[in-house]
Amino acid sequence: MLRFFGIRLARALLTLVLVVTFAFVVLRLSGDPALLIMSPDAPPEAIAAFRKAWGLDDPIWQQYLRYFAAIFQGDLGLSMRDGRPAIALVAERIPATLALTLPALAIKIGLGIPAGVYAALHRNSFADRAVMLLAVAGFTVPSFVLGLLLVLVFAVQLGWLPSGGQESWRHAVLPVLTLGIGGAAVLARFTRSAMLEVLGQPYMRTALAKGVPWAVAVRRHALPNAAIPTVTIVGFMVGSLLAGAVVVESVFSWLGVGRLLVVAVANRDLAVVQCILLLVATTMVIANLVVDLLYGALDPRLRVAPKGATA
Amino acid sequence: MTPLVEIRGLAAAFDDVPALRGVDLTVGRGEAVALVGESGCGKSVTWLAALGLLPAKAKVSGSVRLDGQEILHAPPAMLDRVRGGRVVMIFQDPASSLNPVHRIGRQVAEALRLHRGLSGAAARAEARRLLDRVGMPDARRRLDAYPHELSGGQNQRVMIAMALAGSPELLVADEPTTALDVTIQAQILELLGEIRRDTGMALVLISHDLGVVAETCDRVCVMYAGRIVEETASTELFSAPAHPYSAGLLAALPPIDGPRQPLAAIPGSVPEPWAMPAGCPFGPRCSHHVADCDAAAPSLAAVAPGHRAACIRPVHHARAAASMLLPA
Question: How far is it, in rounded angstroms, from Cα A223 to Cα A234?
């Protein structure tokens, strides 16, 4: 178990190093922060001074090593735009993002899983077809389209809810719905197929053959088995709590981490972008670790020799 | 005295394709009956249908009486008491027939709670006794094992222990030894016979293995294409099969001694359920076939005392049957 955990942890750290390195290289190759932040018609001396101040004159490998050394001391750098620590900028946006993604996650799980289970138990019924039709629609419509559609109906036509901003809870309703509906659709489809798979297993027939009533067999024998694959998707959703709202935050001008990321990338605000990527990668990696541990709890077959699961 | 189970005209169809086409079968108290035939002939479906275990899309009709009481299409609450209580069924692949996420002790105890009202420590003690009864080594420790930690034979023992939990009057064993290796097969069959002697429980053994059947059962029903085509005592079937299909099955058994020779296969293949011939379903493959065979599907009729066959030209002698099917 310790060995298993050790391997997972090493792999997780490697993932983080790769994400940071990749972000570092791509951001430096794709534009000059000095020109973007100082504006191209600034005097050359000012731009040179800016480059010198931020160490942009040094060879890229020196910058990389310096950056890496700083991370290990807990220093994620300063924002080139307003000089504050990047971590502070990001941290103050986290509550706003969670205010959207946590309720959305509740909708995904609370709506998606029961809908999928219901559809599977009533396979080929009208209800099943209706649920699946909605799920396919929710699954295929991109979130910015769904978001704009909701704005059009509830903000523009009906005038019930604001179309953007974040002054009150009412401003959160439409972005939360946009995020929640799409995720619920994904989860409903996934849960349904996991349930159908399990319902066809011989042990379900055994349960009925020994006199277990249908509803009890579903609860006690089918659901625990169907939970195993479903946990993977839920884990992924938990992992994207911080990163999953980039598009929706932009559509609803919601000042969260996603919006900060978009602005920081446009400005080549290197420290901020890297800080967000590191944060997102870390949450994703932690969620994956938790999923791996949950597998062991849910499926005794994986307890003895955990292998083959994805990192 | 009413028989324990009396099945009359049992038919089942999936998406309008018939899988059973009128099965008549009686099981007496304490009797051991075998149901033999090729894969897909309806052996398992007969009992899944009788116990209401087919998926909802299957259309089932006919009559299944347990102790004179109709159980086909009975209310779920009644069926739940019958299944696992008076009639239990165990299946071919024991490893996948047990729930992989529950400990076996819990799975046995579940049946005990349902049919004997036991729970907690009492259920656990009884589960342990049952595992001991079915010859599970180190039963106390195995209560906490998961199915994947046991061998196929051990899992089948768990299935049998679970089946015994409700003190059933009839155990339907659907190819219980097919997935096991030969020595374990013999042990499991012996166990079933032993339990039957001790409890007086009736046994229906579904099998395609005539050797297994000969050892275990008093009476044999041969199924072909969704119907029973011959029904007789096991000894009689081996010495004097009446239906050309049964004769063909016996002729296809490899001889245990003598020179090696090619096996006598029955020519052709089982007709597809949606393309049944008009008369006898075995007609097109039968070397005894005459024009009258195509008039109507023959029903079971006595060819000798206690021996019925669904054939208008029954074979009367095993050797005749064998020579008839062997290449000249």
Answer: 15
For B200, other C-beta atoms within 10 Å of its C-beta total 10
* Domains of chain B by start residue, with CATH: 5-217 (3.40.50.300), 240-325 (no CATH)
- For B271, counting Cβ atoms within 10 Å of its Cβ (0-12 exposed, 13-18 middle, 19+ buried), the class is middle
Shortest Cα distance, chain B CAs vs residue A207, angstroms: 8
Chain B residues touching residue A215 (CB < 8 angstroms): none
Give the largest CA-CA distance in chain A: 86
Q: Which residues pair with A45 in a beta bridge?
A: none
Q: Where are the domains of chain A?
A: 86-304
> What is the Cβ-side half-sphere exposure of residue A180, based on CA atoms within 13 angstroms?
22
Residue with tokens 């924002």: A79
Quick check: B45 contacting A, CB < 8 Å? no
pLDDT band for position A48 (50/70/90)? confident
Give me the residues of A, 209-238, that contact B with CB < 8 A.
209-214, 220-221, 224-225, 228
Condensed to tens digits (0 to 9), the pLDDT of residues B173-189 reads 998 888 788 888 888 88
The 8 Å CB, 24+ separation contacts for A218-225 are A218/A121, A220/B110, A221/B99, A221/B102, A222/A195, A222/A198, A223/A117, A224/A298, A224/B101, A224/B102, A225/A198, A225/A201, A225/B99, A225/B100, A225/B101
Kindly report the nearest CA distance between residue B102 and chain A, in angstroms. 8
User: In the prediction, which pLDDT does B259 show?
Assistant: 74
How confident is the model over A37-45, as a mean pLDDT? Answer: 77
- Gap between the Cα atoms of B71 and B52, Å rounded: 9
- How many Å apart are CA B193 and CA B199, to the nearest integer? 10
User: What pLDDT score does B325 carry?
Assistant: 53
Burial class of residue B307 (count of CB atoms within 10 Å of its CB; 0-12, 13-18, 19+): middle
Q: What is the pLDDT of residues A221-266, one digit of tens each?
A: 999 999 988 998 899 888 888 887 888 888 888 888 989 999 888 8
Does residue B213 register a pLDDT over 50?
yes
Q: Which residues, other chains included, contact A39 with Cβ-Cβ below 8 Å and sequence gap of 6+?
A: none
- Classify B307 as helix, strand or coil: strand
Residue count of chain A: 311
Is A308 a residue whose pLDDT tops 50?
no
Q: Place domain A86-304 in its CATH homologous superfamily.
A: MetI-like (1.10.3720.10)
B66-109: pLDDT as tens digits: 998 999 989 999 999 999 999 999 998 888 999 999 999 999 99
Q: Where are the beta strands (DSSP E) in chain A?
A: none
**Looking at this predicted complex, what is its ipTM?**
0.86
